[in-house]
Amino acid sequence: MTQSHKQIINAMIRFLKTQTKKRGFSRVVYGLSGGLDSAIVGRLSQMAFGKNATALLMPTSLSSKENLQDARDFTNHFDIPHHIISLSDYEPILQKYPKMSKERFGNLCARLRMMILYDYSAQEHALVVGTSNKTERILGYGTIYGDLAYAINPIGNFYKTELFELAHHLEIPHSIIHKKPSADLFEGQTDEEDLGFSYQEIDHLLQKIEERKLNLYKTDVIFDMIRGEFSQSLLSSVLTRISKNSFKNKGPSIFTSRTHKSKESAQ
């Protein structure tokens, strides 16, 4: 491991310890899917808290069996406390909803997982740690009040492609690092098929926008500044997602009488 990666990992561990203690907790809990992001968060949490970091594995009947096995192997490899909580008992209820689609089912399961995490949090006084990376957050590629709900997040400012290198330095198993990224909404689902582009392509565009200090939400400016450097289809797809899903990264709008009065006085 290079010195810079050691420093980054140590800083992430300090972040977890400091932010958890700041909120009055000494234990953490997180969802472990068998994918790269949650494995990195799991490894960091284990390095920060040891046995006081617990993983919850929450598969459905549609979840990838490979991912579940990888999650089990991961917890065994690093001796991580964990519980397997199947969502299969809830599925008959969810399937009764009219016109249920795979996407809606996946979002409902994501919210069920977060309910279970927060219930465990209340039971064991353990802070919920998030596993969403920067690429997902910018694109809004996640379920609001589902996997996008958490108290703290050590990887939220790392692009997906940056996490692959970090994973090697954290000694994440190769079976997890080299599999196709997936939100595991259903068997065979992959992120890059959903997004229409590879994470390498998307991150290259997002990093270019960041380097130029362009406002992500001023799409016309971005088109004018970098349209010749990327394909029209990539630009259109990514910027549309950012614009459409920007609400997921904001808190709810709340009416205040002060705001109402100030608008009235200005009329």
From TrEMBL:
What are its GO cellular component terms? cytoplasm
Q: Which reaction is the catalytic activity of this chain?
A: deamido-NAD(+) + NH4(+) + ATP = AMP + diphosphate + NAD(+) + H(+)
**E.C. numbers:** 6.3.1.5
User: What InterPro entries does UniProt report for this protein, alphabetically?
Assistant: NAD/GMP_synthase, NAD_synthase, Rossmann-like_a/b/a_fold
- Molecular-function annotations in GO: ATP binding; glutaminase activity; NAD+ synthase (glutamine-hydrolyzing) activity; NAD+ synthase activity
Provide this UniProt record's keywords sorted from A to Z: ATP-binding, Ligase, NAD, Nucleotide-binding
Recorded hits in CDD domains, A to Z, give: NAD_synthase
What Gene Ontology terms for biological process does this UniProt record contain? Answer: NAD+ biosynthetic process
Tell me the route in metabolism or biology where this protein functions. Cofactor biosynthesis; NAD(+) biosynthesis
Q: What positions does the domain NAD/GMP synthase occupy?
A: 9-252
Looking up NCBIfam families in the UniProt record yields:
nadE, PRK13980.1
- Give the protein family: Belongs to the NAD synthetase family.
Q: What's this protein's name?
A: NH(3)-dependent NAD(+) synthetase
Q: Which organism is it from?
A: Helicobacter enhydrae
